Amino acid sequence: MPLVQANGVDIYCEVHGEGHPVLLVMGINAQLIHWPPEMIDRLVAAGFQVIAFDNRDMGQSTWFDGLQPPSLGSMIAHRLVNRSQQTPYTLSDMAEDGFGVLTALGIESAHIIGASMGGMIAQQMAILHPDRVRSLTSIMSHTGERRHFLSDPRALLALMGTTPANAEEAGERVVGLMKVIGSPEDRRPDDHYRWLGATAYERGSNPEGFKRQLAAIVVSGSRDAQLKHLTVPTAVIHGTVDPLVSPRGGRHTAAVIPGAELVLIDGMGHDLPVAKLDTILAAFRRAAGV
């Protein structure tokens, strides 16, 4: 049953293996297919049950068509003066989606691994219901502090990009994006990125959903005050050459969360390269205690 009712919306999910449950939370404008299959395979081989899902507004999960987020300029202006702003949904709503998936599958608690925006959602899950989070692994993410929103302009431009008109253009867009934000020495062949972009387009690429997800990130504010009281075992993983989310964001996240282990991976950009998976999964398992 890949489509489940979670937090009042339909969420598409896939379950792999049996054992200790691990929920994978993906980043902005990305789908469950963006998790490296090698990562899922290694987790399953290590005795974990792996649950991956499409975030709301992306892929085959519910889209919030017709709900308009504030403009980026308006959101930035509000954040600069610490004023709240209404958006179609927040990171807290997306965190509750994750718990809704677990509940629909009959799982009380799980290890949570989040990448990029998924790391922000995972942090929020640990804040909202720490009793349901066995461990937290936050990868290439930050706590929502304003100073950590600064990116290399080239990376930000590549992320925002132009909207592809077809699957072929979507594939080429991913090739171009990964040349800017991916790990310089550990990129996959371009054909893989073409397949990934084309497949994501065909599954359900949603440019308006990207805007709403971005709004959720910007308006949700800083999690520092709540994370300072977190008692969930935590690993914070970041690449040393990440141009989209600065390594400073990872360092700050680990400094804020009591007892968190910071793992900086040399040469890793804003991706999950196969060559770095052993290091990533070893850090996760230390946090998970298994």
List keywords for this structure.
290 residues, alpha/beta, Rossmann fold, eight-stranded mixed β-sheet, 8 strands, 17% strand
What does this structure look like?
The protein is of the alpha/beta class and 290 residues long. Helix 4 (117-128) links the parallel strand 5 (110-115) and strand 6 (133-139). The protein starts with a strand and ends with a helix. It has an 8-stranded mixed sheet, sandwiched between helices. It has one domain (3-288): 3-Layer(aba) Sandwich (Rossmann fold), CATH 3.40.50. It is 42% helix and 17% strand. The protein is built from 11 helices and 8 strands.
Number of strands: 8
Number of helices: 11
Overall domain count: 1
**CA radius of gyration:** 17 Å
- Overall outline: globular
Q: Supply the CATH class.
A: Alpha Beta
A few lines on this structure:
The chain is an alpha/beta fold and 290 residues long. It contains eleven helices and eight strands.
Write the layout of secondary structure elements.
Layout (H helix, E strand, L loop, with lengths): L2 E4 L2 E8 L3 E6 L11 H9 L2 E6 L18 H9 L10 H14 L5 E6 L1 H12 L4 E7 L13 H8 L6 H15 L8 H15 L2 H13 L4 H4 L6 E6 L7 H10 L4 E5 L11 H12 L2
